Amino acid sequence: MRLLLDQNLSPRLIEHLHDVYPGSVHVASVGLERAVDEDIWRYALQHELAIVTKDADFSEMRLLRRSAPKVVWIRRGNCSTSDIEMILRDNHDELRAFMNDTDAGVIELY
Q1: Which of 9, 17, 67, 79 is the most exposed, fewest CB within 10 Å of its CB?
Q2: Confidence class of residue 65 from pLDDT cuts 50, 70 and 90?
Q3: H or E stretch including 93?
Q4: Is-contact 52 3, C-beta < 8 A?
Q5: Which residues pair with 57 in a beta bridge?
Q6: What distance in Å separates the CA atoms of residue 105 and residue 52, rounded to the nearest whole number?
Q7: Closest CA to 32 of 54, 7, 50
């Protein structure tokens, strides 16, 4: 399970999570740090990555499209990078099931 972390998440998460989400990338590391959501969406789709974000935009986009990457929507308000890391670690099994569910498109994590 590979993730594409949105700009609103720290690039340091990639290093912190490499043991549970190997092959994941941050938008800044693939030249998308100033990209519009559509470009990030297309990149995730082309590279079979799930988008991880704190914004509602990708969740809304997912509802409107058939061909789409999975979206992991972090719904916790202001929180630290460590908090985000723990959310993704603590929900690893749930995320694995989500990624394997062909009917699921968006998962909300708190």
Answers
A1: 67
A2: confident
A3: helix 92-100
A4: yes
A5: none
A6: 12
A7: 7
Report residue 29 as tokens. 């590391």
Mean of pLDDT over the chain: 96
pLDDT in tens, 8-47: 999 999 999 999 999 999 999 999 999 999 999 999 999 9
Dist. CA 66–CA 85, nearest whole Å: 29
Strand partners, 25: 4
Position 97 pLDDT exceeds 90: yes
Q: Which residues pair with 72 in a beta bridge?
A: 52, 107
Tokens matching residue 70: 């999975």
Polymer length in residues for the chain: 110
Residue 45's nearest CA partner among 71, 21, 68 is 68
pTM here is 0.95
Beta bridge partners of residue 88, listed in sequence order = none
21: helix, coil or strand?
A: coil
